[in-house]
Amino acid sequence: MTDAAPTPEKKNRQWIRQVVDFGALAAFMISYFVTRDMILATWVLVGASAVALAVGFAIERRFAPLPLITGLFALVFGLLTIFTHDDLFIKLKLTVQNGLLAAVLLGSIPLKKYPFKALLGSAIKVNDAAWRTLTLRYGLYFLTVAILNEVFRSPQAVTALWHAMGRDTPNPNDVWTGFRGVLWIAASVFGLSQVPLIMRNMIKDEEPGPISPDPGL
């Protein structure tokens, strides 16, 4: 006998969570592009991240591991940015967070361990072959993000890229904040692209949703 399909309440909780998480990133980007003040925008991100964690707990009655990790990274690096008045920390957050996740996931594959399963909690139920594939794909995704972030957070690299394209020297903060928004869209598309694999390897008869590697925090 198979499990019942997800209830409307469960689907609503998933949508609420996604909206709240995206809201944190949207608030950060709007704050920056309105004020052109990265420190002030970081204040907004820290507050929005705290709200996202609280709402996530209220909805699920627990802290989901992956959103908790990204939320804590946002709070720690955001507070470092605020206390030091140096926006390097908030930009480094993506590199450190994604680099560590990539190291853990890719390093676990030869050991035939799948910590990604623990990170997602009970979000999906698939067989071990699918977990291995998902671990590899998400590990490579996190590694790619860490590398790209190092490029787009560097004023020298950004200036060299813009000049190579025959464009004027850009505002590095504008470029990095724009990159952060594009990255969230890319993460959403990446999460959606994994749904066919998940559906083919489901253990339980339930409807999987996309698992974005970027909660937006």
Structure description:
With 217 residues, the protein is an all-alpha fold. It is built from nine helices and no strands. The protein has helices spanning 8-35, 38-60, 65-84, 88-108, 115-120, 128-152, 155-164, 172-193, 195-200. It is globular, with a radius of gyration of 18 Å. 31% of the residues are buried. The model has no long low-confidence stretch (mean pLDDT 84).
Topology diagram in text:
Blueprint: H1 8-35, H2 38-60, H3 65-84, H4 88-108, H5 115-120, H6 128-152, H7 155-164, H8 172-193, H9 195-200
Helix pairs in contact: 1-2, 1-8, 2-3, 3-4, 4-6
Q: Which consecutive residue ranges, at least 5 long each, have pLDDT under 50?
A: none
Portion of residues within helices: over 70%
Please give the alpha-carbon distance between the first and last residues: 39 Å
- How large is the share of residues in beta strands? under 5%
Based on helices, strands and strand pairing, what is the structural class? mainly alpha
User: How many separate helices?
Assistant: 9
How many E strands? 0
Write down the Rg. 18 Å
The main β sheet shows up as: none
- Kindly report the average pLDDT value: 84
Query: What shape does the CA trace take?
Result: globular
* Helix-strand pattern: HHHHHHHHH
